[in-house]
């Protein structure tokens, strides 16, 4: 139930199978100092905004190797997967991958990314969408419908 309305009915496994989509992937990044992180974040965010606006972006050579690697990593991730950045911290990136694919293909692609960017990616975890996330999506939909 969400907002006093029955949204779905079934066992926990059936609800997850019917309403869950994609995977959560958390990348653990190699630690850098705070100055590099701030610089990297500013440049990567400019790159993402320019890519969304279909403009070419150059960092003017001020980014350094770390920001350039992060920019390339995020670009490659978006090229390979239909994904969205959910959370970002100095040593962590949390993505939701909307694609449904075999585990072998998913892990193969992520391992290739890890090997391509060894100076950036230390480790990663992959999880399926949880039942909690399914319930939260129902609540979010009900809240959005109430606002309209």
Quick overview of this protein structure:
With 148 residues, the protein is of the alpha+beta class. It has helices at residues 12-19, 34-52, 64-80, 103-116, 131-147, and strands at 23-29, 83-89, 92-97, 121-128. Strands 2-3-1-4 form a four-stranded antiparallel β-sheet, covered by helices on one side.
SSE pattern, N- to C-terminal? HEHHEEHEH
Biggest pleated-sheet summary: 4 strands, antiparallel
Radius of gyration based on Cα positions = 18 Å
| CATH top level assignment | Alpha Beta
Here the CATH topology equals Alpha-Beta Plaits
Number of strands: 4
Secondary-structure content class: alpha+beta
The spatial strand order of the largest sheet comes to 2-3-1-4
Low confidence ranges? 57-63
Structure description:
The protein has helices at 12-19, 34-52, 64-80, 103-116, 131-147, and strands at residues 23-29, 83-89, 92-97, 121-128. With 148 residues, it is α+β, with helices and mostly antiparallel strands. It has one domain (19-147): Alpha-Beta Plaits, CATH 3.30.70. It has a four-stranded antiparallel β-sheet with strand order 2-3-1-4, covered by helices on one side. The longest helix is centred in the N-terminal third of the chain and has 19 residues, at 34-52.
Keywords:
148 residues, alpha+beta, Alpha-Beta Plaits, 5 helices, 4 strands, globular
Reconstruct the topology from this structure:
Blueprint: H1 12-19, E1 23-29, H2 34-52, H3 64-80, E2 83-89, E3 92-97, H4 103-116, E4 121-128, H5 131-147
Antiparallel strand pairs: 1-3, 1-4, 2-3
Helix pairs in contact: 2-3
């Amino acid at each position: 139930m969400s907002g006093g309305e029955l949204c779905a009915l079934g066992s926990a496994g059936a609800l997850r199978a019917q309403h869950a989509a994609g995977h959560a992937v958390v990348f653990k990044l190699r630690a850098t100092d705070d100055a590099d992180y701030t610089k990297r974040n500013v440049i990567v965010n400019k790159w993402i905004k320019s890519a969304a606006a279909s403009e070419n972006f150059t960092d003017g050579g001020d980014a350094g190797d770390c920001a350039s690697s992060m920019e390339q990593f995020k670009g490659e991730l978006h090229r390979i997967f239909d994904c969205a950045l959910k959370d970002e911290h100095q040593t962590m990136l949390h993505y939701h991958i909307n694609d449904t694919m075999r585990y072998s293909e998913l892990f193969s692609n992520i391992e290739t990314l890890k090997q391509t960017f060894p100076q950036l990616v230390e480790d990663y975890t992959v999880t399926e969408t949880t039942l909690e996330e399914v319930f939260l999506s129902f609540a979010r939909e009900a809240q959005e419908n109430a606002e309209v």
